Model the fold of this input.
Amino acid sequence: MRLGKFILAGWLAAMGLHAAEVAVTGRAIDENDARIGGVDITVTNAAGQSWHVTTDPAGGFTLRLPTEGQYLFSANPNGYLPIKNLSVEIAAPAQEVHLVLNRAKEVLQRIDVNAPPESVDIEQTQSERQLSGIQILDIPYPSTHSLREAMTLLPGLVEDPNGGLHFDGGRENQTNYLLDGFNISDPLTGQLNSTVSVESIHSIDYLSGRYSPEYGKGSAGVLQIKTETGDDAFRYSATNFIPGLSTQTGVHVSDWTPRVNFSGPIVKGRAWFADNLDADYNINIVPGLPSNEQRTSSLQLGNLMHAQVNVTPSNILYGDFLFNYLRAQEFGLGVFNPPSTTLDQRDRSWFVALKDQIYLGNGNLLEVGFAEMLNYFRLVPQGVGTYIITPNGKQGNYFEDSAQSSRRGQLLANLFLKPHHLAGTHQFKMGIDVDRIDYSQDTSRTGYDLYGVSGNLLRSVTFEGNGDLSRPSLEASSYITDHWQARSNLFFELGVRQDWDEILRHVEWSPRAAFSYAPFGPATRISGGFAIIYDPTIIQLFTRPLDQYTLSNIYAADGTLLRGNSLTLYTISNPNLQAPQFRNFSFGVDHDFPHRIRAGLALLRKTGGDGFSYINTLSAPILAPPDIANAYHASYIEQLFNLTNARHDEYDSAQVIVHQSLTGRYEWLASYTRSRARSSQVLDPSLEQTLLLGPYNSGPLPWDAPNRFLSWGYLPTPFKNWAVTYLLDARSGFPFSIQHDTGELIGFPDMNRFPSYFNLNFGVEWRLHIRKYRFAIRGSADNLTNHQNYTEVNNTLESPQFLTFYGSEGRHFTARLRWLGKE
Done:
């Protein structure tokens, strides 16, 4: 009987406790009511007990609290101002809580207000590196108006001497570039040619190694550019509206990079806009040329308009319009390329995008978007004289006159489903992406003459055939992914992606799996994953057989003609080429230390196969068969390049990153990357190339940098409103090849290296008030140690200047003036 009473009393107590439970639902939104997914929320009661929950992609969350009463809510999302200990009265039987998160904006009123310190997110299964818009504005990287240059602040990224961006050892066209969710890579080359104002950036997120199947092709990773949105307050600012001075090769007017930013409401509480206009009048100095030939100029204009309209509380419409214009005189000017050999470049592009985000209720969210991108590219030589190549430089006029246009139309749809519960919590997401690409060109090439060290003519090349061509393509993709919380400290990301394009006509399947585990509490995360990722099909590779071809006359050292009318031809004979495939393995450990220090170790291995490469199928020149001789007016076939899947790439890296957030906006970062990037086909033959490839083409890639140390920071001083900022970038020198004066490669490619690179930039910034307006003035010294960071080398064995290095900018000083609007 006593046992029965005891059981009854326990049951009644349990029922009482259960009855006292409160179901709390809510959502996280920004100041414009846009839903924010992936926000970590902590709820604490007076006894110190805490509960954790993360918002779903629709910004929603649900949790159960044991009793009604007073609770403290905290949220600490990257890119937004934190909510700390927000007191909320929870009442039975249910409660709804809305958390409004304000974006961290550089134009805030006080210098000590910034985004929250970065912390370990145990739900994050992807390998991610991020730059905030504030960091981009604070750090003195070279050419601080350039978003491309700002990206070099990301560990794992190197920039080659030609300005190419290489993420985790990949080629530039192996990265998937997104602007507010849409592809903005060049439809022809797959590279990032669009320019976006640095002051329009909310954040740059780089995903590497393992990432969700929702992101498209790109073995090097995904770069997401997220832009700022206006709010109900009118904001305006301007930067560098006064031309600056440079001390490089004497004091002179330097680059002028004015930027004007304006944002605010279209209809308060309903619609907002942010407009960012930027210009770049660039004076390029090339040390090593005569003083009257070492300067060239370019003008670049850009405007990005981003808008948001809340059609209804559950239907939000986003829009982007980006326009770019470039006119560059004497493009390509260099130590070995005097003004007559350069090109005038003209470039225009338009990008427009619309995205409709519809909340369907019950945690379901649908996104539908469309984007259109148009590019026009023009190259004009300085004249029609013969282009002459010598071991000591170029002469005459460049041989190419070209007009190119490309277009991409993109349609995408993403569906976020409400969480489902089975052996944990599952968050499903699925979507489609359809792209239509068109490319056309009208190119005319003349030819060039190649001379040896002694001044004798070695080769005379002419271009024949028609350079007027077009090539379309259609791409279609779909994916499904499951973000699975198996336990409170164990998460998985499982999914698969399907890709198809009109050129290869194969359906490719890309399975991806990743995990995140916090075995010792929320301060430590162990993560890793495996992914099969395909590279995009670059149209430019498939247009070479449709383009012009070359006929060459080859001469002996005494001037005797050895072979006349020798043909070099590009073909595609295999109708069943495969898509280039990479297998990525990654592993990482992240830990939060005291004093807001976060440290992480990341290991990455990428192995690529079936890469596209044009291979010379001839071991030696042959007499042209009658059909080839008649079709191309050729006597010999010197090189017959056929597109194959013969390329194999490898990249291995170990990376350590330490980051500390100090009070306010102050912070510092240090990273070291040990890596190796190699390929079986290092040098890619092209129609315009002058280097003759030998039997060996394997070795390190031209941007291989085995060691790189990167550190930057924005630090306080004892003086109010003063700060110091710095950038330190040190790495191994890039590799380069050796050749004969005939243009023939000697041995393996990239067996030599430039001297080590070392760059230290240091600046001082003063923020001041004049009446009701705020200003920021920064002076900085670039390459403070005056290290010789060469960009070019004489690599011709027979030249008297063999292994002479050129192109170091040396130490120089710059200034920046920013008007930050009203207090």
Notes: The CA atoms of residues 219 and 533 lie 6 Å apart.
